[in-house]
């Protein structure tokens, strides 16, 4: 392998890593939005540091989505 091929392979691996990390975060937020819409999640807002947490009831959400 030439130096260019090695550099391109490393760059491809890095871009693939970033894509997977972003895709996983996107899937989490999609799940959170659905869970909030189905009232299977609790959103807690902390006004002091302007942050929020989302607690998702995974079992209830799976049952609600599957229809069981």
Description of the structure:
The structure is a single chain. With 68 residues, the protein is an alpha+beta fold. The protein is built from two helices and two strands; from the N terminus they run H-E-E-H. Strand 1 and strand 2 form a beta hairpin. The radius of gyration is 19 Å and the shape is elongated. The mean pLDDT is 86.
**How far apart are the first and last residues' alpha carbons, in Å?**
55 Å
Largest sheet data = 2 strands, antiparallel
Main-sheet strand order equals 1-2
Report the portion of residues in β strands: 15-25%
Provide key terms for this protein:
2 helices, alpha+beta, elongated, two-stranded antiparallel sheet, 2 strands
State the gist of this model:
The chain is α+β, with helices and mostly antiparallel strands and 68 residues long. It has 2 helices and 2 strands, in the order H-E-E-H.
How would the blueprint of this fold be written?
Elements: H1 3-37, E1 41-46, E2 51-56, H2 58-66
Antiparallel strand pairs: 1-2
């Amino acid at each position: 392998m030439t130096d260019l091929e090695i550099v391109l392979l490393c760059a491809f691996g890095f871009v693939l890593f970033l894509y997977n990390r972003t895709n996983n975060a996107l899937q989490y937020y999609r799940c959170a939005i659905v869970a909030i819409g189905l009232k299977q999640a609790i959103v807690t807002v902390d006004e002091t540091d302007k942050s929020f947490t989302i607690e998702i009831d995974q079992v209830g959400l799976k049952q609600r989505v599957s229809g069981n």
